[in-house]
Amino acid sequence: MPYAISAAGAALSYAKETQRSALSHISGLSTRMRSRYMMLDAITLRNLEILRDIRGESNSTLAGVLDMTGTPMGSRLLLRALASPLLDINEINGRLDAVEFLYKTAGLRAALGEKLRQCADIERIAGRISYGNVSPRDLVSLMRTLLLLPGIKSLFSEAPPAISGALADMKDLGDAAALIQGAIVNDPPALARSGNVIRAGFNKQLDELRELSGSGKQWIANLQQSEREKTGIKSLKIGYNQVFGYYIEVTKPNVSLVPPHYERKQTTSNAERYTIPELREKELLIQNADERLAGLESEIFNQVVGSLRAYVGDLQCASGGIAALDMYHALSEVAATNNYVRPVLEHGSRIAIRDGRHPVVEL
């Protein structure tokens, strides 16, 4: 055990140094005991074609046959279970009880599979919340998954202990879902800095800045129409770039129609660009509003993420419950599809196999 503690400390120290984070999402460490798990080295896993075959592919392996999971969390748990088989008969039978229960309840199995396939990878999302690099789309996916949990739990009126334990891990996270639902728009951009992430009505000051920004841009559109009518230049347009800001652009053939109060701002190959006092004043207001809007929206998004950090532990617990359910569901689905039977386990050295089949050879 001292060596294991030293190795774990070194791994944590390396992770903290490279990730530059407190790793607050790591809530504990667990040991993998030889008395509980079979230890399979990489060569054995390859030769038995458990996870990868000799060519490094996964399709023609035991994992390829059994992995009918609907979530990334369930798939990772199944691969860990295959790489570290259980040794305790009671634990093995507990897992088999869960698989058999779902195998015998086809209607429940189908309904559960449909809901599991809608679940996002909340284990990874919880880690990104802890790091502070979660995206708005991650939060919407998380919210939709959390709203599925009560429906998943309601499918079971009774269940064997392994499934009951998984359901118990899926705690009520309605408050976290409500926070995201109230703060983030339904279809946000991929990056928070792109703007238009926070839902209208969530923050009064943000709503006011959006109204100011929007009305300013409408004022620009109205000014363009007004100047076209005043000057008679139908091709006149008001544009914007980051170097010169807002400008009135007039093509070279129409320069003679430009009013005297227009101030030249820039010359291009086929047009002249001008400004006027009222456009300069409005530009300043719009730019200030846009800068404040971007800053405030980013601040509000970070506050939402900060509030969600309090739920990281429960999210990790829920992801473990979803993963376990998904693994049991996948194994029951494989059993039903391939007509597998449940093995009978007992203490002793006798092995009796009748009409045995090799799942990988059958591919």
Secondary structure: elements and pairs:
Layout: H1 2-19, H2 42-47, H3 62-66, H4 72-83, H5 89-104, H6 106-116, H7 122-131, H8 136-154, H9 161-169, H10 174-183, H11 204-231, E1 237-241, E2 245-251, E3 263-267, E4 271-275, H12 277-308, H13 312-338
Antiparallel strand pairs: 1-2, 2-4, 3-4
Q: Could you explain how this protein is built, in words?
A:
By secondary structure, the protein is an alpha+beta fold. It folds into three domains: 1-31, no CATH class; 38-194 and 311-338, Orthogonal Bundle (MutS, DNA mismatch repair protein, Chain A, domain 3); 204-302, MutS, DNA mismatch repair protein, Chain A, domain 3. It is 56% helix and 6% strand. The chain contains 13 helices and four strands. The protein has helices at residues 2-19, 42-47, 62-66, 72-83, 89-104, 106-116, 122-131, 136-154, 161-169, 174-183, 204-231, 277-308, 312-338, and strands spanning 237-241, 245-251, 263-267, 271-275. Strands 1-2-4-3 form a four-stranded antiparallel sheet. Strand 3 and strand 4 (271-275) form a beta hairpin. Helix 8 (136-154) runs antiparallel to helix 10. The longest helix has 32 residues, at 277-308. The relative contact order is 0.15. The mean pLDDT is 90.
